[in-house]
What we know:
Radius of gyration: 32 Å
Distance between the termini: 105 Å
Order of helices and strands: HHEEEEEEEEE
Shape: elongated
Number of strands: 9
Largest sheet: 5 strands, mixed
Strand order of the largest sheet: 2-9-8-4-5
Number of helices: 2
Strand content: 25-35%
Structural class: alpha+beta
Amino acid sequence: MRLLLTDAFFFLTATNCLNEIIMEKKKIFNAMVAILFVTVILPSQVSARRGRGRGRTKSKVQIGLPVTGKYRDPESDQYYNNNNGAKIIMASHFDYEYVLGHKIAFLCTARGNPRPQITWYKDGIEIYSHLYLHVHEWKMEETIKSKLEIDPATQMDAGVYECYADNMYSIDRRSFKTDFSIVFD
C-alpha cells in the first residue's frame, strides 16, 4: 500500500513537472513567433518613410476626387460636380517663402451660386483676424475674393494655409505651404 501511494505521488509530481515544462516551451515558442513576426514579417509589410512628413501632395485639379475620377453614388457626383457649386477660380502659388519681418499675402477667389463663403485655416485650424493678421473680402455677384495678410511675418507664421470655399452645393479648397528665410544685411 505504501509503495502504491509513493508511486502515485511520484507519478503526480512527474506529471506536474511535465505540464510546467510544456507550458514553458509553449511560452518560449509564442515569444519566438512574436519576435519573428516583429522582425521579419511586419517590416516587409510596412514601408517606412524616414524623414518625410506628409508624403506627396495632391494636384490642385484633383483635390477631393477619387482615383477613378468618378464617384460611387450619383448623389456624391451631383454634389461635387454641381454647376452652381463653390469653385476656386484663382489662388496664390502653392509654395511661398517669406522674409521674416515682411508681409505675407495670400489671395483666393471663388465663384458659385449662391456666392460661396471663404474660410481660412492654418495647419488645419480656423484662423481669425487679429492685430497682425487681416482678412479682406470683396463680394461681387457670384464671386468672392479674399485676401489674407500677415504683417509683420514671424517664424510662427510658417505652416500650411488653406483657403476653403463653400456654398450649399459643394466645397473647394486650396493649400499654400509657407516657410521663412532669413536675410542678412
